[in-house]
């Protein structure tokens, strides 16, 4: 789940589970930072944000049912607002593409395209045209095989209702 889309309760749960050595204060500070970063990213019409999430994000609960339901409601509202395009890649579609980890492709009219690929401990950024093109092709295939944004909204709302 991209940090910019996380509700504060969801963020606290993920941060606590990812770094159990953080104090409660550190968890709260990091969750607040995610919230503020999300507000900055999502407050304007740009950049455009297109996201494909794996079905595991929806199927595997990482927090209490009420926190997960609130997270899915918030995501559905964000997609309905038109601010982002979100698709969920179905569990049963093989091959499971994109298992190498999360990545972002950043495009601008007046700068080269940039790839940011994440791993557990760090992220790597490159503007190498060949590498950016490779990930662009991967993202296109992920989008083509994923649920439509409308079907994704239905899935999120159904899942939130099941959790209530």
Outline of the structure:
Helices cover 51% and strands 18% of the residues. The chain has 164 residues and is an alpha+beta fold. It is globular and about 45 Å long.
Can you put this structure into words, describing what you see?
It is a single chain. With 164 residues, the protein is of the alpha+beta class. It is built from six helices and five strands, in the order ααβααββββαα. The strands form two sheets. Strands 3-4-5 form a three-stranded antiparallel beta sheet, with helices on one face. The longest helix is centred in the first third of the chain and has 19 residues, at 24-42. 20% of the residues are buried.
In round numbers, the mean pLDDT is: 88
- Per DSSP E runs of 2 or more residues, the count of β-strands stands at 5
Supply the helix-strand structural class: alpha+beta
Ranges with pLDDT <50 over ≥5 residues? none
Order of helices and strands: HHEHHEEEEHH
Sheet with the most strands? 3 strands, antiparallel
Q: Span between N and C termini?
A: 20 Å
**Strand order, biggest sheet?**
3-4-5
C-alpha geometry? globular
- Beta percentage is 15-25%
Blueprint of the fold:
Layout: H1 8-18, H2 24-42, E1 49-54, H3 55-59, H4 65-80, E2 84-89, E3 103-108, E4 111-118, E5 123-126, H5 129-145, H6 149-163
Helix pairs in contact: 1-2, 4-6
Keyword list:
164 residues, globular, single chain, three-stranded antiparallel β-sheet
């Amino acid at each position: 789940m991209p940090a910019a889309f996380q509700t504060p309760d969801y963020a606290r749960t993920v941060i606590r589970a990812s770094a159990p050595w953080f104090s409660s204060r550190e968890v709260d500070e990091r969750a607040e930072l995610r919230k503020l970063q999300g507000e900055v990213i999502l407050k304007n019409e740009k950049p455009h944000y297109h996201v494909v999430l794996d079905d595991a994000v929806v199927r595997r609960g990482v927090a209490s049912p009420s926190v997960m339901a609130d997270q899915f409601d918030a995501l559905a509202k964000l997609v309905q607002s038109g601010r982002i395009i979100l698709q969920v890649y179905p569990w049963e579609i093989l091959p499971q593409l994109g298992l190498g980890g999360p990545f972002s492709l950043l495009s601008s009219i007046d700068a080269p395209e940039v790839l940011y690929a994440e791993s557990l401990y760090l992220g790597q950024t490159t503007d190498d045209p060949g590498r950016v093109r490779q990930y662009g092709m991967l993202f296109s295939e992920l989008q083509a095989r994923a649920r439509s944004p409308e079907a994704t909204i239905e899935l999120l709302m159904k899942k939130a209702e099941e959790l209530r």
